[in-house]
Amino acid sequence: MSHFDIIGDIHGHADALEKLLEKMSYQRFNGIYRHPDRQAIFLGDFIDRGPKIRETLHLVKAMVDAGYAQAIMGNHEYNAVCFDTKNTKEGGYYREHNDEKIKQHYKTLEQFHAFPEEWEQFLAWFRHLPMYKSLDTCKVVHAYWNDDNIQWLEQHYQPQGEGLSAGFLSNCYREGLPGFKAVEETLKGPEHRLPDGKFMVDKEGIERKECRLKWWAMDKSTMGEGVMECPPELRHEPMPQGCDSTVFTSDKRVFFGHYWLTGVPKIENESAICLDYSIAKDGILVAARLNEGKKPDLWH
């Protein structure tokens, strides 16, 4: 099947997801959305932040289980598994239970408070989601397609096998470990350290000294063009040394989410198309409709 509808980050906004599916002529039969000749692909980040996380997970997983959709892992699903999995090497958990991490995950924990068995089932599902897919007509990944990272995951991550086991996480959960870069960049994107004394403020108001790189950008000559949420005083500065300034190309279009874009959805680079337009921060839910041989249509 080459007739895919690829849907960006949902973050617990089940109502927006239902509206988008219905706009794209999906109908509900026996409680499950389906299309007679199309299949949805979800790019991850189903949980955290939104008002209907539990409903979102039931909707998405039901479609996947019935064969009407495919899904890949987002960094929030990965983080949830790390938050829940005890660190077999150093004690504690693979994701710290500090104030910042609890705040990021709180909406999900709150909405599943009365449904602990359901949450365990969804965590088990997260553990075996693929981190990417290469299909006949496109590639999908949550944050960043890098061939070296994908090759490492292909060799070491087995979604149909052990998945995100404690053994796998023990090789990935912090910098310096063999799988850290591959997992971190695939699910969270490449970053670069800002000059000393400079910082950017992320969508949650947290000051960060690392900036997200717009790896898909056509022009990356200045930091304003090549960096997400670039500090205003650095916008006209050249990109830091070591940053990849080449234009990303691919044998098949890559669709991804993660980056909290704003404004009217558009295709900047036909080889790499972002579908995250900040639904969790007064934005919109966006999908790309693929029809064989044609340029994708963006729906919202």
Q: What does it look like?
A:
The chain has 300 residues and is of the alpha/beta class. The mean pLDDT is 94. The strands form 6 sheets. It has a 5-stranded mixed beta sheet with strand order 5-4-1-16-17. It has a 4-stranded mixed beta sheet with strand order 6-7-12-13, with no helix packed on it. A two-stranded antiparallel sheet has the order 2-3. It folds into 2 domains: 4-189 and 249-299, Purple Acid Phosphatase, chain A, domain 2 (4-Layer Sandwich), CATH 3.60.21.10; 191-243, no CATH class. It contains 9 helices and 17 strands. A hairpin with a 6-residue loop joins strand 14 and strand 15. The chain is globular. It has helices at 14-23, 53-65, 75-84, 99-111, 116-126, 147-156, 166-169, 180-188, 223-226; strands at residues 4-7, 27-29, 32-34, 39-42, 69-71, 132-134, 138-141, 191-193, 200-201, 207-208, 210-212, 253-256, 272-274, 276-277, 284-285, 287-289, 297-299.
Strand proportion, as a percent range, falls in: 15-25%
The CATH architecture term of the largest domain is: 4-Layer Sandwich
| Rounded Rg | 19 Å
CATH topology title of the largest domain: Purple Acid Phosphatase, chain A, domain 2
Strand neighbour order, sheet with most strands: 5-4-1-16-17
Please identify the oligomeric state: single chain
Largest sheet: 5 strands, mixed
Q: What is the class of the largest domain in the CATH system? A: Alpha Beta
In CATH terms, the superfamily of the largest domain is Metallo-dependent phosphatases
Beginning-to-end CA distance, first to last residue: 23 Å
Domains, number:
2
- Range of helix content: 25-40%
The tally of beta strands, per DSSP, is: 17
Structural category: alpha/beta
Task: Enumerate how many helices there are, as a single number.
Answer: 9
Q: Looking at the structure, what is the overall shape?
A: globular
